[in-house]
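Bug #77: duplicate submission created two jobs. Keeping one. Sequence:
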Amino acid sequence: VGVLNGKQITLYLDRAADNSPVTEAQIELEIGGKKFKAAKQGTDEFEVVLADAPKPGVLPITATVSAGADADLLAGELPIESDTSRWFAVWRAPGL
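Kept job's structure:
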């Protein structure tokens, strides 16, 4: 799950099997053709800061997630209205 607040995206990664937080992972987002590596923040949060807040419309997002021996490539879209502070679901990764 992630929260978009202006140009900051905070990500929370949970395991599909038991919903426990994944605290050690590598997350890379591709947003609108640009790649961003998420930085770990706190115990179970990751953060990406964009150069600018996304404009209204549909924003394609691809996430590459690696945690230990598990890895997943996930894709989705984030609809953005005029208020860019919103929650969005980042796909449930079956391997994590």
